[in-house]
């Protein structure tokens, strides 16, 4: 019986499963429709299907890693209710005050109306007691008010509660006493403390991050408990920071999973690209509901703590990903002004596009591809037949309303979708000072490769790389990541005390070691970093900090790295200007338990598969060669117009483009 590690990525439309043979490195992949009502059903169906694919002999499973969208979807769909907030007396309006900045697109804040807060003000309770910014007690904690608040929440039936006291990042004592009161007075409460979730200053962001953790904790605990019971074995969960953690640990910090699936895709694509000789790339994960974009530089995806999920800022470390509602299920609709729009609303997996034949009535991006002949009349090798006639009827009805030909309408839907994706890419490149023309695009996911040629033209990309089994790259990425936990402590100073810095790093590394020891790692790796800024600036730049003794040389090295990073980001630095002192803000440690990554094997020779012909519309409708990807060996070239099909995805090659297969089986598309 073969020993395998399994990755399961639950998406909005499909659940992807990948198994890697731990002895031979052989990779098995499959997909099954997602089950939004209970994602655990699709998870288990995918693993059962994988076993059947191997002849039903079964596996000796060495480990299972799961990428989940349970927390993400709850936030994106704004399904938050029954949430309470406890904060310091006098600060009950911290969520209403928020920040003075307004979203892009609102040049004047007069035209912008603040959305409802994550917790309405009538569900906020305050407790007396005060700490200063160094953590020293100014006023004692009020046990009486704490008991009163706990009993009020119990009487109201509010069981998910976030606690964020002023300056608790410097001293968590008052928050811990509040938790003890809640345990005693309101035993059913699910509690999140800001000093556990994010020991970092900035009260508004810390409050919202803590409340997001509390909001998703009940759903995540229920889902993971149900899945663990049905699976009958332990498993790990992908985190937003590019690491994994056991399910039993991640239930205590569910906010760390809010970009679980997209993070795995970026990491898997980074490994595939670097193996093929592309160290710095843009990754694009196109699914049924959304498209996720990330930037990889020197083999590592960019990390941020300034991310948002939906409308909620989340200051946890996460891979810097921009998500747009541009997937295969994105709905085409007509605005009140009579113009064609695409997304962000999606038909999802149920009912899905019109061509699925499951009751969908709205035209989607997938329907446009089917109408134009750019995808086959079935998905997953014939498992999901597509109703091309229904797609045609839907496109024709929409075309009549717009006064356009059906071909023009379908092409317009795809053009809008391509521009939606290109705008997400620009957010991560042009807005961060990167030239998009310097980066190949690695595109994957079921719908990711479908617009490859248009993105090359729109953005001026040098090429697009489509990995083997593109629909399963996120699931594969789950098997390439280490166990990882992040820890942070705010320490704002212009005169860094080496002794204090050493004390903080020692404490953070001790916490990391304890957590990784519970995961079975006796000799973990500790990665240090620090957030610095010029005195007077409002935001910081994070730079890596060396391991080893913390001395004057160590401090100088970190400061020089900050100058270099600031100059790279903003075009200037103040190295030798005493008027602009460097201020230290946060010290960080990432605890890493390294795993053995699967080795990507070169493609030996082409497999089976015949070339056929189908009517496909690009600039005109004509009989077009349809290539089976399995039949394309290393060095094979395909000139457009053509279509390359495989089990999980399709690559339309437009006229004027050529696709080449590299040594590892990746398809690289370039303009002639």
From TrEMBL:
Query: What is the superkingdom listed in this entry's lineage?
Result: Bacteria
Occurrences of domain Hydantoinase A/oxoprolinase (ranges): 206-486
Pfam families named among the record's database cross-references? Hydant_A_C, Hydant_A_N, Hydantoinase_A
Q: Where is the Hydantoinase/oxoprolinase N-terminal domain?
A: 5-183
Pinpoint the Acetophenone carboxylase-like C-terminal domain residues.
503-664
Bilayer-crossing residues are none
**Protein name as it appears in the record:** Hydantoinase/oxoprolinase family protein
This chain's source organism reads Nonomuraea bangladeshensis
Q: What is the lineage of its organism?
A: Bacteria, Bacillati, Actinomycetota, Actinomycetes, Streptosporangiales
